[in-house]
Amino acid sequence: MKCTNRFTKLIAVLLSGLITVSLTACGKEEIIYPFSDYAKETAFVDGNLFSNAELEGFASDLVAFTEDNIEKYDLTHASSGILIDLNGQKEIFALNPFEKKYPASITKVMTAYVALKNSSLDEVITCTRSVSALGVPDAVALGLVEGDTMTMDQALHLMLVSSYNDVAVAIAEHVSGSIEAFCNLMNEEALALGATGTHFSNPHGLHEDDHYTTAYDLYLIFNEAIKNPDLLEIIQCKQYQTIYHDRSGKEHGVNSVNTNHFFRGTYEMPDTVTIVGGKTGTTDEGGYCLALYVKDKYSNPYIAVILDSDTRDFLYKEMTELLMVITN
Fold first, then answer.
1. Same domain as 277, residue 131
2. Least packed by Cβ within 10 Å: which of 78, 82, 259, 305?
3. Which residues are catalytic?
4. Where are the alpha helices (DSSP H) in 31-96?
5. pLDDT in the model for residue 30
């Protein structure tokens, strides 16, 4: 969706850079992060003067970062992470939150978000030959072929629950006609959400050098995505069973199991929090990644993200330790 109003244009310009550097009175560089508590009185944007209130309005319900509480904790086996208190609108933990990383299959959260904004759940998807041409031999795939059909609802469940990459291709081509056109939508939505350190070049997250994001951007994207009740329902599914059809009408049954190993019971989650749902991601270049939406014992919501962990064991061990911070 292309934005044309003056305020959205303002935001696009304001967010065109991730970090602003200025000199303090002592000559020391001060790093200003996106949506930080840096005081802005007025600004000229595209020849127009905007007030402090207008500048702050866009980020009024987003978490502000200050230099003092960046990296207050540590992740030994991952290079980036974040933990956000959504009710309190505060950062509890951040490690390299603005460092560009490969999101792997967490990408599919944005794919689902864009698809839900531009289609209905009952639309029927007909696969093209592109679903069989992922270009990565060991990529997780349902095994779709040209002519296979399923509804958008089925496709979103299969993509988010079991992370099938060929299903992500089918969704993208159905919505926009091509991968390139769909990625343009993804990038427009990312910019509209303030995720200026993000660029998507495919709908599934298989590695490409120009497909990247940050832990902070994933917070922005995930925070908006879970506001959609259909997406929120899907990421809570531990299993999903369905039947799709091939071009001849033959039925193909699928028993889909969530890739989240907390849901699978492989790793025990802290008993003081409830993991509502999330999305995993794994590639050689991006490491082991996990984004979660959780609630504490008082039902207060949080978003936790860890990117580029060394192994699956380390990912879930350190995510467990990070979630335990909520109760301390």
1. yes
2. 259
3. 105, 108, 163
4. 52-57
5. 34
